[in-house]
Amino acid sequence: MEKQVLGGLEWRINVPDGTSKEPVPECSYYLKPRLALKGFLVVGLMARVLNFLEKAWALGVSEPKKVIHGMKVGIALSLVSLFYYMRPLYDGVGGNAMWAVMTVVVVFEYNVGATLCKSLNRVTGTFLAGSLGIGVHWVASQSGEKLEPIILGISVFILASAATFSRFMPSVKARFDYGAMIFILTFSLVSVSGYRVDKLFGMAHQRLSTIAIGTSLCIIISMFVSPIWAGDELHQIIHRNMEKLAESLEGCVGTYFKDNQSGHPSEGDSSKKTQAYKCVLNSKATEESMANFAMWEPPHGPFNFRHPWKEYLKIGAVLRSCACCIDALSGCLDSEKQATEHLKVHLRDASMAVCSHSCIVLRELSMSVKTTTNSSKLHSSVGEMNFALQELQNALKSLPTQLILQQPFPDESSENKSNNEKECAPPVLGLIPLATLVSLLTEIAARIEETVDGVVKLAELAEFKASNEEKRAQNQSTSNNQSSDHPSCDTEPRRPFQRPEFISTSHLRDRYFSGFCKLVSVEERERHSFFS
Amino acid sequence: MEKQVLGGLEWRINVPDGTSKEPVPECSYYLKPRLALKGFLVVGLMARVLNFLEKAWALGVSEPKKVIHGMKVGIALSLVSLFYYMRPLYDGVGGNAMWAVMTVVVVFEYNVGATLCKSLNRVTGTFLAGSLGIGVHWVASQSGEKLEPIILGISVFILASAATFSRFMPSVKARFDYGAMIFILTFSLVSVSGYRVDKLFGMAHQRLSTIAIGTSLCIIISMFVSPIWAGDELHQIIHRNMEKLAESLEGCVGTYFKDNQSGHPSEGDSSKKTQAYKCVLNSKATEESMANFAMWEPPHGPFNFRHPWKEYLKIGAVLRSCACCIDALSGCLDSEKQATEHLKVHLRDASMAVCSHSCIVLRELSMSVKTTTNSSKLHSSVGEMNFALQELQNALKSLPTQLILQQPFPDESSENKSNNEKECAPPVLGLIPLATLVSLLTEIAARIEETVDGVVKLAELAEFKASNEEKRAQNQSTSNNQSSDHPSCDTEPRRPFQRPEFISTSHLRDRYFSGFCKLVSVEERERHSFFS
Lengths: 532, 532
Hints:
Two copies of one chain form a homodimer. Chain A is mainly alpha-helical. The first copy, chain A, is built from 21 helices and no strands.
């Protein structure tokens, strides 16, 4: 019994083995290699499908909004399909009903702005091209059988060429690209159609109404079922990019100075943080399209009707230039790790201070944009950043003596030398990586100040909320504004590095003066710059 | 007589003046402000239209390819329209004929790759969704009147949601985005249609054939009437970007060193050149879409069927990182113009040499990519660039004595001091901008070497033509290959800065060794780096 079972098992095991080298006499056995190949292909395909599904699942988990968008499209499409399927007047796919389905498929985009943009483009393009097409059709039909195809052909050629070319114009491309395409489509269809003009009017009416149904369904669902606003996306990109820059800057400078103290820190995490600026470098295309779509959107959340979306683009450009500097910095620091050790120690605290104050300013900006609130600490943070820069300058000024002492009197630094052979390098060469670091940190700070200017302008145009401190200060100033009208007008610009803990002027005046302070402080920094 | 004329003139001048403050008693005069407003609006509109036309004209003159594309679309559309218009079987816009027109409008893109991609997506999507739709339609129609709309609605919902979500997957988005949209559209139209299944088959056949006619017309015209290849565009972007980087680098460093010699040079021209790198920073999106489209294109010009388009993306990324460094450099140099003058003079020649040799390498790379030819001078140019870097290092090494001499013995440099007050700055501070320059030039050179690696790999994969020198060398080596098999194997890697005027090994071996040389030379550069 057992043997029989074993034999059976053996037999069963042998049968599916297509790789046996024994001669295969029976006919059906010839198919085995093919079956194996088939099995292999099926398994390969299955693996690829599984891989794809895994990736899809990961994407869905990380960005559930995209899953919701898919479901929204599904709902809109089933609604419009079934609506037309169950209409008694329905006359098959060839009829006008299909335009509603087509409109939903083509017009429903990820964010509200894009959906609105495409909807309006579609309706306008169809209407304009339809009217023009009916006109041309009428003219052609009046001018005799011989001339008719010539007039039609030439008009289609001219308008299609012109409209296609116009799609390359930046102003058209940004807003009316889809409208131009729909214009070409509708004009060709209408002008060349074999219908009489009076029938065309009825058809145009039907077509426009089905398109209107489709677009309004899309607009309603995209605006009221968990809406995704292009403006929100742009807003998030900008303040997240600020945080990413802060992360990268911290990671980059931190790694450089930590490296020689405690060996390599937890590399995976820190290198991931340091690389965060790379996203910022590549965000231009997304930012521009989001800004274009955001202009079509109605007021929502903290954004009014004429929210200054173009300011976001300017801020984005400055952030990218900042990211460029961080890229250069990380490249230079990676390849030049062996700065003279005592110089590094000497400048370490001052450099780290500049870095951390720059990061504080970036995070302050990010928070200000995120909450659309004027930051009360922003100007003091900028002052502290500039102060830290001056401290770094002072640290550099105190360097030469050490530098000169080290080389001509080898006795003094003999201990260092015996510890570390790196110190043998000529002092100037050892200084270079640190000089680069200082220079690039200064440049990064300057670009962060440009970002501050951009955010201040955005706050002004978008009317950001007043911060708690500002509100308190406003109350104070209204209670005693007869005693001193603008108490810090003449003094503050002269002391750009002082910390203004409480800003006592009113909201707008504060902005004006702080802008002035900043201008003066930049000028002063340039005048006092350690390169003069 | 004269008075009368004058009066007449006065009267005429007064009439169109809508801003007069006199009381206006007559009825027709009430219309004047309105007419003036209308006239103003018309003039404003005319001005805008004229402005638009001017811009369009400028675009057409600068890029005639775009005008030609417009005309190609016009030709395709008139052809397909008239073909259907004149067919005796034609049954109006509602029929299947319109699908051919629509296909031409939607599928005809600027370059061949995009047109092919959309055409294949459209045909495949329609076919797949049509088959699936007919299947679902049949199942639904078999399951009774009550269940039918439910099955249809659910199937449309699930498939539309899944297909919409799949469009967010990077792998689908890059290649099958349009196909997924057409899939949703066709599936909804077919599955929900009120036709019987046997009629659907006939319709599907007709639909597919009209789409095939439209797509083949598009493909033929776009491929044979002055074709615009995505591959060509990508190729041009890459080698032009190399030239732009060379221009910017030259402009940037040149301006810095020229500035104090002969005042400001012709600023408009040089600043335009210096800004050229900004185009490079923003080219990522274009490069990626061109690479995606180029993969669909058949062999054309110097590009074979499996041309390594992805290598171009890698080279593009390195070029962008190079542009980042140039951006940081230009920022640093702009804000730090006052380096100590004699230091600047000391390092000027060496820095200019590194800059010009870097530019030579970039131009050599550009020419090599442009002509798809292996450059014979590339490796010697890289060697010269490295040599120039070492010279710069030597110039720096000879600095400390001067630097130290200047400060403690003021007598020696008293002449300089009296000439220029800038010299009063502590020597270390005066050194910083130059240190930054040297550091960033080194980083730029390192990134240019990465570009060289990328181009060498591209040349290997794309089988670039042999240069004249290589051909000559190949002939030589085949004539005397028994005397010495690989003469430079052991010696060359040790002398990376020597100029290999003629490369005597065979084509592939040369590449292998040069790669090895480069690896060693990079290592050596790092080992001998002046930061060690």
